[in-house]
Amino acid sequence: MFKGFDPTTALAAFALTCLLLWLLQPVATRLDLLDHPKGRKDHAHPTPITGGLAMALSSLLAFAVMPNMTSSLQAFGIASVIVVALGLWDDKRDLRWYWRILGQAAAALVIIYAGGVRVEQLGPLFGFGETSLGFLSVPFTVFATIGIINAMNMIDGADGMAGLLGLAALAMLCAASVYAGNTALAERVSVLAAALAGFLLWNVRFPWRPRAKVFLGNAGSAFLGLVIAWVSFRLTQNPGHPVNPLLALWLLPIPVMDTLVLIVRRLREGRSPFSAGRDHIHHFMQDAGFGPTRAALWLTLFTLLCGLLVGQAMRMDVPNPLLLLAYVLLCAGWLWLSADRDRTIAFFRRLPGAGQARMAGA
User: Fold this and answer.
1) Neighbours of 29 (CB within 10 A)
2) CA-to-CA distance for 195 and 11, rounded, in angstroms?
3) If 0-12 CB within 10 Å is exposed, 13-18 middle and 19+ buried, where does residue 153 land?
4) Half-sphere exposure (CA, 13 Å, Cβ side) for 173?
5) Distance CA 257, CA 260 (A)
6) Where does 68-136 have alpha helices with state H?
7) For residues 335 and 264, is the Cβ–Cβ distance under 8 A?
8) N or C: which end of the chain has fewer CB within 10 A?
9) Is the CB of residue 187 less than 8 Å from the CB of residue 66?
10) 265: closest CA among 187, 173, 189, 331?
11) How far is residue 193's CA from residue 54's CA, in Å, rounded to a whole number?
12) How far apart are CA 207 and CA 205, in angstroms?
C-alpha cells in the first residue's frame, strides 16, 4: 500500500458485512424485511432487504475503532442512522415521497451543521476563476445530497447495479484522495468500499447462484447515496488537499444522467418523476437481451472509463467548461436516444453480450 495507509480496518469491515448479512437473514424473515415478488419485479422468492443495514453497521463500527474521530465523522454517523432508519421504515410501510425527501434533507443538514461539511465552491466551473456559492452553499449541499441519494435509489433496479456503480465511484474517490495526499479520507473511503464489496458478494449473480441473496432496499440505496455525497464533499471542499469539484460529477455519470433524463421525460409526459416505470437505462438494456450482471458490468466499465478520461483531462488542464459541456452533451444524447424505445434497444443490441441474459446467470 502507500505510506500511512492501513488496510486492516477495511478488511474487517468487509468480513463484518458478510457476517452481518448472514446473521440478519432470520431477522429479516421474522420482521418481514423482505422484498416480495410482485408487479415489475423478476425475483421468484421473498428476498431480505437488509443490505443497507449491514453496510451501515459494519462501516460505523469500523469508524468507531479508528483513531481521530472527527466531528464530521460523528455527523456522518448520525446522518447515516437517519437515512437507514427512514429507509427501513419505507421498506416496511412504503412512505410517501415527501417524507423521504424531508428525512434526506434532515440528514444533509446534520452533515452541514454538526459536521461542517458543505459545498462552498465549485472550482473554475465556467472558466472565470473559483465559483463561490456564498449564501447558496447550504441549499446547494442539501439539494446535491438529496439528488445523489435518489439517483442511487432510482438506479437500484437490478441485481448488482447500484452496488457495482457505487463501488466504482468509491474506488475512484479513494484513488483521488490518495492522489491529493488526503490519506485520512482515503482510509475512510476504503472502509466504506470494503463494506459495499461485502454486500456485493451476496447481491451479484454468479453462475452457481442465479439470483441475489440480499437486496439493498431503500435503506441501502439511501445509505449508499449519502456515502457518495459525503465523500465527494469531503474530497472536493478540502483546501489542504484540493480536488476539482467537477470530477465528482464524472465519477457517478450513469445514475445522475439517468435520473436527470428520466425526470425531464416523465414531466414531459405529465407524470410524476417518482412514478414507477420501465424507462431506466438498465430496463432498456434488459429488453435488449442483457442480464442484470452483464448490464451492470457494462455500465460500471463506462463509469471507470469516464473517471479515468476526465481525471487525465484535468491533469492536462482541459478547461472546465469543456468538461461540463461534455457531460451536458452526454445527458442530451441519452435524452434523444431514450426518447424512442426501439432505437434505444437497437443501440444496446449492438454491444457484445446482448441476447445472452440467460447464460451463466448473466
Assistant:
1) 12
2) 9
3) buried
4) 31
5) 5
6) 71-93, 97-113
7) yes
8) N
9) yes
10) 331
11) 13
12) 7
The structure's pTM equals: 0.91
- The length of the chain, given as a count of residues: 362
CA dihedral (170, 171, 176, 179) positive or negative: positive
| Residues 156, 259 contacting (CB under 8 angstroms) | no
**Three cell numbers, residue 162:** 447500484
Closest CA to 154 of 30, 278, 312: 278
At 294-309, the pLDDT tens digits run 999 999 999 999 999 9
CA distances to 121, 123, 126, 319, 320 from 129, rounded to whole Å, are: 11, 7, 8, 11, 10
Instruction: Give buried/exposed letters for 129-152 (b at 16+ CB in 10 A, else e).
Output: eeeeeeeebbebbbebbbbbbbbb
Q: How many helices (H) and strands (E) does the chain have?
A: 14, 2
Each residue's pLDDT tens digit, 72-112? 999 999 999 999 999 999 988 888 888 999 999 999 999 99
Cell, residue 69: 474521530
